[in-house]
Amino acid sequence: MLSSPIKNGEAVKLITQALGSDDFLIEPEIVGPSHIAYVYDPPESLHVVDIVIETTQGKLASRDIRLRLQDPKAV
Fold first, then answer.
1. Would 6 disulfide with which of 10, 26, 47, 48, CB 3.0-4.6 Å?
2. What strands lie across the sheet with 34-40, from one edge to the other?
3. 8 versus 61: which is more confidently predicted?
4. Is the pLDDT of residue 55 over 60?
5. pTM (2 d.p.)
6. Residues whose CB falls within 8 Å of the CB of residue 67, separated by 6 or more in sequence, listed in order
C-alpha cells in the first residue's frame, strides 16, 4: 500500500493538508505571509499537478519544501 503510486492531484491535496496542520515542521521556515498557488495542466483546467508557495521573499517550488513530522512531546 505504501509503495502504490498516487496521482499528482491526490499528492497535492495531501501536501496542502499537511502544510495547514500542526503535525509537521516546514523547511525552510516560512516567515511572514504566504499563499499556496496551484499549478494546472493545461493552464485554466481543473487538473492540478503541483503547488508553489508564494512568500514575501519569493516563490518556493514543491521540490524545495521539506516536511518533517513534529515530535508530539516538543509541542
1. 10
2. 34-40, 48-55, 58-61
3. 61
4. yes
5. 0.71
6. 15, 18, 19, 24, 25, 26, 27
Overall size of the chain counted in residues: 75
Q: Is 34 exposed, middle or buried (0-12, 13-18, 19+ CB in 10 A)?
A: middle
Per-residue DSSP letters for 24-70?
EEEESPP-S-EEEEEEESSTTSS-EEEEEEEETTEEEEGGG-EEEEP
User: Which grid cell is 20?
Assistant: 495547514
Flag whether pLDDT at 1 surpasses 60: no
Distance CA 30, CA 18 (A): 14
Q: Which residue has the cell 493552464?
A: 43
Cβ partners under 8 Å of residue 63, min gap 6: none
